[in-house]
C-alpha cells in the first residue's frame, strides 16, 4: 500500500512536470531541428528541418512504441507527416505507416497551415495539427499522451511532387532522446507570456512509464536532471515552472523516503 501511495504521489508530480508546451530538438550532426508550440487547447504547430534535395522527401512520425531504424522493416504503427519540395511543387501529407515498405495517405487529412520549402539543401516543413485528432479512421495518434518522435530523411520520391506515388527507403534516421508529452498544456501559462530565464539553462529530461493501473502491474518513474546544456531536447517557455516542478519532485522524493 505504501509503495502504491508513493507511486501515486510521484506520478502526480511527474504529470505536471511533463508538460512540454513548447520546445525544440537539434541534432547538429544530422542537421535536423524540430520546434513545437502548443497554440491552443487542442492545436500544436511543428517546424521541422532536415536535409533534402529536389528529388527527396523527409518524414516526421509519432509512435507509441520505441522505434529503431531496424524495427521500421517490421510491423509498426506510425502517425507520419511526409513532405518534400522540388523547388516549384511541394507536398505535406498526413500518412499512416505500417512498415517502412508500406505507408498510406490518411483517408482524413488532419494537417493545417502546411508548407514545405527547400533552401540550401534543407527542407523546412511547417504544419499544425490537433493534439487529440478527430480522425475517424484510426490513422492518427493523439498527442495528449507521451509519444516517441522519429524522423527519416534522404529518401527518393517516386512519381510527381504534386502527387507522389511512393517513397523509397530513406538513408537518414533519428529519434528524439525524450518522448513528446503535450498533456495538460492548457494548464500552463502561454509560452509567449513567459520570459525565458537568462542564466543557467536547465535541461530537464523526464520519462514516465506507467503500466496498466492494476495493482499487480508494475510502474517505474525516472527523472534525469542535467545541469548544463546538452544536445537533447529542452522543454522551453516555462523555465521557472520547470525548476519549480523539479523542486517539487525533489521535495516529494525526500518526503517519500521518510515515509
Ligand atoms: C544525432 O544523430 C547521430 C547519428 O544518427 C546519433 O548518433 C546521435 O545520437 C544523435 N544525437 C542526438 C542528440 O539525438
Ligand atoms: C508556419 O506557419 C504558420 C501558419 O501558416 C505561420 O504563421 C508561421 O510564420 C510559419 N513559421 C515558419 C517558421 O515558417
Ligand atoms: C516539380 O514537380 C512538378 C509536379 O510534378 C513538375 O511539374 C515540375 O516540373 C517539377 N519541377 C522541377 C524543377 O523538377
Ligand atoms: C492532466 O490531464 C489529465 C487528463 O486530462 C487529468 O486527469 C489530470 O488531472 C491533469 N493534471 C493536471 C495537473 O492538471
Ligand atoms: C530551444 O529551447 C531552449 C531552451 O528552452 C531555448 O532557450 C531556445 O531559445 C529554443 N530555441 C528555439 C530556436 O526555439
UniProtKB/TrEMBL annotation:
Boundaries of every DOMON domain copy: 30-155
Region ranges (Disordered): 211-236
Signal sequence range: 1-19
Keyword annotations: Membrane, Signal, Transmembrane, Transmembrane helix
InterPro entries, sorted: DOH_DOMON (IPR045266), DOMON_domain (IPR005018)
Entry's transmembrane regions: 237-257
Domain of life assignment: Eukaryota
Entry protein name: DOMON domain-containing protein
Source species of the chain: Amphimedon queenslandica
Lineage: Eukaryota, Metazoa, Porifera, Demospongiae, Heteroscleromorpha
Amino acid at each position: 500500500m505504501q509503495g502504491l501511495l508513493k507511486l501515486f504521489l510521484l506520478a502526480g508530480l511527474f504529470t505536471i512536470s511533463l508538460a512540454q508546451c513548447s520546445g525544440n530538438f537539434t541534432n547538429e550532426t544530422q542537421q535536423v531541428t524540430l520546434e513545437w508550440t502548443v497554440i491552443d487547447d487542442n492545436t500544436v504547430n511543428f517546424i521541422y528541418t532536415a536535409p533534402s534535395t529536389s528529388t527527396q522527401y523527409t518524414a516526421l512520425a509519432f509512435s507509441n512504441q520505441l522505434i529503431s531504424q531496424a524495427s521500421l522493416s517490421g510491423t509498426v504503427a506510425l502517425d507520419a507527416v511526409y513532405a518534400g519540395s522540388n523547388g516549384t511543387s511541394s507536398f505535406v501529407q498526413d500518412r499512416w505507416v505500417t512498415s517502412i515498405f508500406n505507408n498510406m495517405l490518411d483517408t482524413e487529412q488532419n494537417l493545417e497551415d502546411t508548407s514545405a520549402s527547400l533552401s540550401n539543401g534543407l527542407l523546412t516543413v511547417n504544419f499544425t495539427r490537433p493534439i487529440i485528432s478527430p480522425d475517424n479512421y484510426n490513422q492518427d495518434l493523439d498527442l495528449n499522451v507521451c509519444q516517441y518522435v522519429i524522423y527519416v530523411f534522404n529518401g527518393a520520391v517516386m512519381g510527381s511532387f504534386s502527387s507522389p506515388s511512393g517513397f523509397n527507403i530513406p538513408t537518414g534516421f533519428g529519434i528524439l532522446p525524450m518522448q513528446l508529452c503535450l498533456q495538460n498544456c492548457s494548464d500552463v501559462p502561454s509560452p509567449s507570456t513567459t520570459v525565458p530565464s537568462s542564466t543557467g539553462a536547465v535541461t530537464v529530461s523526464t520519462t514516465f512509464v506507467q503500466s496498466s493501473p492494476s495493482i499487480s502491474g508494475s510502474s517505474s518513474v525516472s527523472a534525469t536532471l542535467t545541469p548544463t546544456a546538452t544536445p537533447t531536447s529542452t522543454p522551453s517557455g516555462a523555465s521557472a515552472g520547470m525548476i519549480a516542478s523539479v523542486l517539487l519532485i525533489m521535495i516529494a522524493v525526500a518526503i517519500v523516503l521518510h515515509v
